[in-house]
Write a structure and sequence with these properties.
Length: 313
């Protein structure tokens, strides 16, 4: 028989939003239970230097998440290493099913499932995933020491990945659809002045090319946006860094969403379209998507859950 666990507040997700919600809900004596999900710590566990977390001039992303988990645990938040596979929100208590077989019921739910990397959807991209195509420079950059590699994108994610990969690669080609970057100015300055990075403007990835036996990347074909001319670039690794999409699988059919799947919350609130269900972090934030704003929303969600539960009582 599977175990059933009840809590006043169930927190789903373990990034800055989830762990901060755990700290505040614990301090409110709500005895929260936090289910970490498939990637404990979220996107920051695949980030290297974090330079914009207040109080730390520089801290490694994984270290920051270890600290936040320890803080939430010390406050009294119970942290469970499980993955929620389904969530029923049509009646209270709300019910969640875990991959472990456990059932979790709760009077209120805080959703902090974050976001995941986007892919281009090319057949050749899919073919070489894990064999030279990656969406995580910190995970796989080490394997390309002394090699030439390619990064796709023009926002913060792409520029951060390209800069990080210069630690290993002999050359990094950044392929971007436009002729200017969308990243923060300080990141643009670093990239455009880095001797190992060569931008290829107004191009899009057309195809990843490589060998079948063994499976491996040998280069890419990039197409000029206006002329259609193909440029071939030799590369052993291709890093796709075109942003992220909200991890909304649990609620996309039950909660109101917008802007490509981000959960809608009420103005100046984390309350969703279902009373007692709150959303925080990158699951709902399509504008800022920063660790510090996610943490702030986690705080808001816990405080709003506390007030909402008090009103029910």
């Amino acid at each position: 028989m599977s175990e059933t666990r009840h809590s006043k507040v169930l927190i789903i997700g373990s990034g800055p939003a989830g762990y901060t919600a755990g700290v505040y809900a614990s301090r409110a004596m709500l005895e929260p239970l936090l289910v970490q999900g498939i990637e404990p710590g979220g996107q920051l566990t695949t980030t290297t230097e974090v330079e914009n977390w207040p109080g730390n001039t520089e801290i490694q992303g994984p270290d920051l998440m270890v600290n936040m988990q320890a803080h939430a645990s010390a406050m009294g938040c119970e942290i469970v290493g499980d993955v929620i596979t389904s969530l029923k929100l049509d009646s209270r208590p709300f019910t969640a099913k875990g991959d472990s077989g456990a059932t979790y019921t709760a009077d209120a739910v805080i959703l902090a499932t974050g976001a995941r990397a986007k892919w281009l959807g090319l057949p050749s991209e899919e073919k070489f995933k894990g064999f030279g195509v990656s969406a995580c420079a910190t995970c796989d950059g080490f394997f390309y020491r002394g090699q030439e590699i390619v990064v796709i994108g023009g926002g913060n994610t792409a520029v951060e990945e390209a800069l990080f990969l210069t630690k290993f690669a002999s050359k990094v080609t950044l392929i971007h659809r436009r002729d200017t970057l969308r990243a923060e100015k300080i990141l643009q300055h670093r990239l455009l002045n880095h001797p190992k990075i060569v931008p290829l403007w107004n191009h899009a990835l057309d195809e990843v090319i490589g060998t079948d036996s063994p499976l491996g990347v040998e280069g890419v074909r990039a197409k000029h946006i206006e002329t259609g001319k193909i440029t071939e670039i030799a590369a052993k690794g291709v890093f796709v860094a075109i942003g992220h999409a909200p991890a909304n699988e649990l609620v996309k059919d039950t909660l109101e969403t917008h802007m490509g799947g981000y959960v809608v919350t009420k103005p100046d609130s984390t309350a969703t379209s279902i009373p007692g269900v709150f959303a925080a972090g990158d699951l709902t934030d399509h504008v800022f998507r920063q660790a510090v704003t996610s943490a702030g929303m986690g705080c808001m969600a816990a405080l709003e859950a506390e007030r909402w539960l008090a009103e029910q009582d």
